[in-house]
Amino acid sequence: MEEVNNFKTPNKVSEKKKCGVSSTPTSNPCVNIPASPFMQKLGFGTGVSVYLMKRSPRGLSHSPWAVKKIKSQCDCDSQCENVYQKRLIDEAKILKDLHHPNIVGYRAFTKASDGSLCLAMEFGGEKSLNDLIEERYGAHQGPFPAAVILKVAVNMARGLKYLHQEKKLLHGDIKSSNVVIKGDFETVKICDVGVSLPLDENMTVTDPEACYIGTEPWKPKEALEEDGVITDKADIFAFGLTLWEMMTLSIPHVNLPSDDDDNDEDATFNESDFDDEAYYEALGTRPPINMDELDGSYQKVIELFSVCTNEEPRDRPSAAQIVDVLDADVP
Fold this sequence. Notes:
The protein is an alpha+beta fold. It has nine helices and ten strands. The protein has helices at 13-19, 78-95, 129-138, 146-166, 221-224, 233-248, 276-282, 299-308, 319-327; strands at residues 40-45, 48-55, 62-70, 106-111, 117-122, 127-128, 169-170, 179-182, 187-190, 197-198. The chain has a five-stranded antiparallel β-sheet, covered by helices on one side. Helix 4 (146-166) packs antiparallel against helix 6 and helix 4 crosses helix 9 (319-327). Mean pLDDT is 81; it is low at 1-29 and 256-267.
């Protein structure tokens, strides 16, 4: 695991004197990640879990970290576990070079007391946008207010503009679960850059070794084609579907029971209800929205969602264009 030793943990000036700026994360005594049972679990993904690490050494109040770890009991073979480890290492390498208010920040890459690899990040909030969508769906509250959706949109677009233009990176897996929210949408930050891909000067993924991963319901048409050309516009399509999630409180292309069916025992979503053929046929297309649920305040949101989910990548706006349009109206 030589890659781990390529990282150095950023420390405050006062800590550098105590710890030594040349020490690596695995040997740095100032980075002490507790075992998983001693941290609050924030969420999980394929092969990994994310924990809240509270930091108050010697009575000092330090900001908490979000710690991503390989699951200790992963239902896969060693080859599969190596894939997760490589993704975590790649994510740490990428994240360490990113500095933007709408991208979760890097803090450290080290090993926990139980020996597992850990990526410590800025704590962007206890809940993902997906968590908030699920809560709103469960409470039958209907779509998020248009102003909230636009606030999320402009902050996500700012983060994507930075990734695409300044860092020449495709995020590669934009969706509500990869957006973290603090408080009442006080901050909106994109996370999980572990499957990011390099973009060339034409905003195209040309590296023959680069493979677009994404998450199936959010994939654009070009990512579903064998020889599809992947550009920055793949992130824009998924961004558009994230706005759709906030309007419908649903997973793209997956039909869930409506509020009108609350008292219908058949409204419970079962795997047998899932229409595989319709789902796969719908992938890469613009899903419908229920216009009866949306009043005139959603006009700009609907227009933005629609243009971002055009099937032709060239017909979608860039992140920079989205920022230009929204910056004037959204603080």
